[in-house]
Amino acid sequence: MKVVVFFISFVFSLLGFSQSNLKPLHDNGDIILSVYPNPATDFINISIKGNNSDAIVKIYSALGTEVFSENVDNFKKIDVSDFKNNVYIINVYAKDELLETARFVVRH
């Protein structure tokens, strides 16, 4: 059990979360990220408000595998019907800096 908790903490730290509170290491108040519906079955909507020019959205599985990456301006509808039932992490980057993080669940 301790190994699993350590591994999950390690993966979250690689994805940009601090281990103590699971918030982004780079807190940028200029970006507001919305992900809905949550839990998702067939698709998710990603809405980014704020200073998001040249934003790149990356989605990772709970094990840290990148499953999606694309440039997003303000809104993007993403097909998750092929994603496995799991928890996923969304990171928003601009100029190689992590700006915002969110989690969502896929449940078919």
Describe the structure in your own words.
- The structure is a single chain.
- This protein has 108 residues and is mainly beta.
- The chain has one domain: Immunoglobulins (Immunoglobulin-like), CATH 2.60.40.10.
- Helices cover 12% and strands 48% of the residues.
- It contains one helix and seven strands; from the N terminus they run H-E-E-E-E-E-E-E.
- It has one helix at residues 2-14; strands at 31-36, 43-50, 55-61, 66-72, 75-79, 86-94, 97-106.
- It has a four-stranded antiparallel beta sheet with strand order 4-3-6-7, with no helix packed on it. Strands 1-2-5 form a three-stranded antiparallel beta sheet, with no helix packed on it.
- A hairpin with a 4-residue loop joins strand 3 and strand 4 (66-72).
- The longest helix has 13 residues, at 2-14.
- It is globular and about 35 Å long.
- It starts with a helix and ends with a strand.
- The relative contact order is 0.24.
- Residues 17-27 have low confidence and may be disordered.
List keywords for this structure.
108 residues, mainly beta, 1 helix, 7 strands, 48% strand
In short:
With 108 residues, the chain is mainly β. It is built from one helix and seven strands; from the N terminus they run H-E-E-E-E-E-E-E. The chain has a single domain (26-106), classed as Immunoglobulin-like (Sandwich), CATH 2.60.40.10.
